[in-house]
Amino acid sequence: MSRPAGHPAPLPRLRLRITAAAETAVRGGHPWVFSDSVLETNRPGETGEMAIIYDRKDSFLAIGWFDPDSPIRVRILHAGKPQNLDDGWWQARLDQTLARRARLFTAETTGCRLIHGESDGWPGLVLDRYDTTLVLKLYTAAWLPALAATVKRLQVKIPADRIVLRLSRNIQAMAEKKFALRDGQLLHGTAPDGPVIFQENGVRFEADVLRGQKTGFFLDQRENRHEVEMLAAGRRVLNAFSFSGGFSVYAARGGAASVTDLDISAHALDSAKRNFALNQSHPAVAACQRETVQADAFEWIEAGTEKFDLIVLDPPSLAKRATERPAALHAYERLNGLGLRRLAPGGILVAGSCSAQVPAADFFDAVRRAAAKSGRPFTELKTMQHPPDHPAGFKEAEYLKVIYLKLT
């Protein structure tokens, strides 16, 4: 039977062959195939197509999202035996992802990460919950053609008042031009009147889900904020690069004598002020003295002489690419050396890094060098990395690390 006029023949499935090294990486569970690892394709691929990767023996190797405009050419969805990625497959994957978090949180925590990209089997997609608001962030345009179907699947399993779309900067122009999708757009429900309020271990915070950094709040530091709360009683606390003041509110609830929020952004300090106000019903927060300083953290810490009993140094990423790693390690060592000078005897330094290009071992060693060069005796209390709702399933996903040092 002939095909009706005006109906072009369907394109053959997109097939790829990749280098031997890339084959090995995919077999080992790595979720990315880079553009320079693609040896051949049977035809040009389109954004969001399913690409099937075959090995050197012409056997099925993996299937994933194809993105012709990204250095990460294929983001692997499944590797191993061939699978039909139908609706049942997607529902099963979502069930597995949510089940990993089923016992992680109590009713006092209404903010958490529900889907963490590649490490949960959803490459380039993050889903955060802020009370009854879901924020869906995409880091690859490959999800855009499948967005409507993805949202429907989420709605079945995760009831919410609204779903907000956030887009990484590198795909915003294309998303609007080709798909009429914008960063901060509502995919379901109505826009909130202002920041969304959620709880974290009973502490109340606001999240700017429409325009804020990432999805509106840094949920990944939850466990470290709780650690600071446990260490803060009676201490004078400096929270450098304070952003929205999360560490400060926890420290205040933990009985800190005072907290100082230090950030170069007036907008961030205003958010920190509001978060502090949200928790004034707690006696310890109400009793804590609070100060804000708008300044460059490096310069302010270096120039001052006031001592603190607990200092949190959690700067933005200092290395966006591998070539910046040496300079970043030097900056981390310098920053923490400056921080140690401002610590009172018996004080605690909490040093963090969110730079994926800086391995944890290298960062911890940089902080230890700074401590050794200070000439002051110290004890290493602990190191911490990713919380359970932010799993790191492959090397490039390992971005978060924090080390605790105490002067003795």
Describe the fold and architecture.
This protein is an alpha/beta fold. It folds into 3 domains: 14-79, Roll (Archaeosine Trna-guanine Transglycosylase, Chain: A, domain 4); 87-196, RNA methyltransferase domain (HRMD) like (Transcription Regulator spoIIAA); 218-407, 3-Layer(aba) Sandwich (Rossmann fold). It has 11 helices and 20 strands. The chain has helices at residues 20-27, 87-99, 147-157, 169-179, 222-231, 246-253, 266-278, 283-287, 297-303, 325-341, 360-374; strands spanning 14-18, 32-34, 38-41, 50-54, 60-66, 72-79, 111-116, 125-130, 133-138, 162-167, 185-188, 196-200, 203-207, 236-240, 258-263, 289-294, 308-313, 343-353, 378-384, 401-407. The strands form 4 sheets. It has a 7-stranded mixed β-sheet with strand order 16-15-14-17-18-20-19, sandwiched between helices. Strands 2-6-5-4-1-3 form a 6-stranded mixed β-sheet. Strand 5 and strand 6 (72-79) form a beta hairpin. Helix 10 packs parallel to helix 11 (360-374). The mean pLDDT is 95.
Secondary structure elements and pairings:
Blueprint: E1 14-18, H1 20-27, E2 32-34, E3 38-41, E4 50-54, E5 60-66, E6 72-79, H2 87-99, E7 111-116, E8 125-130, E9 133-138, H3 147-157, E10 162-167, H4 169-179, E11 185-188, E12 196-200, E13 203-207, H5 222-231, E14 236-240, H6 246-253, E15 258-263, H7 266-278, H8 283-287, E16 289-294, H9 297-303, E17 308-313, H10 325-341, E18 343-353, H11 360-374, E19 378-384, E20 401-407
Parallel strand pairs: 1-4, 9-10, 14-15, 14-17, 15-16, 17-18
Antiparallel strand pairs: 1-3, 2-6, 4-5, 5-6, 7-8, 8-9, 10-11, 12-13, 18-20, 19-20
Helix pairs in contact: 5-6, 10-11
